[in-house]
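Friendly challenge for the regulars: who can give me the structure tokens for this chain first? No prize, just bragging rights.
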Amino acid sequence: MTQGNSISRARKSDSRMLRVRRARAADLPALGRLYAELHLDDYRDLKPSPARLRKAFRALVRDLDHHILVAERDGEIVGTLHLLIFRHLGHGLRPAAIVENVVVSGAHRSQGIGETMLGEAARIARANRCYKLALTTNVARKRAHRFYERLGWRRTHYGYSLGLD
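First reply, four minutes later:
Bragging rights claimed.
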């Protein structure tokens, strides 16, 4: 699938249609609001200017290994995630897929939106012959851990971070 194509995965949930598709430049204000919810404590310090956000977005959408997905309900962006197909020389040259920045708007949580987005991420990873789909989540986010485990994700590794700021 080329980067410009829309993904038309829809799910009937809460009596309204949910559509997961690739993000467009017009979605950037909504993405900024969602990212602010993801980083409630520090987003003011991390928030890029609209011009820098547009420039970074343009670079990402040109790279076919990046998939920025949005969940849209009734014309409103209610969730997002970023899927990266990570190509490397191991595992018989099969890539891995990494999910980052999973966020569903607080007003729309527990409605199947995150599950639908992650299902689409898994579909894209399989279509790219990935041998695994991985993500990390903060150790303090117990509700997120229960969510991922309910969907069949398993804790299989220890993750470490090295702050570079």
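The chain has a mean pLDDT of 88. The chain is about 30% helix and 25% strand. Your move, everyone else.
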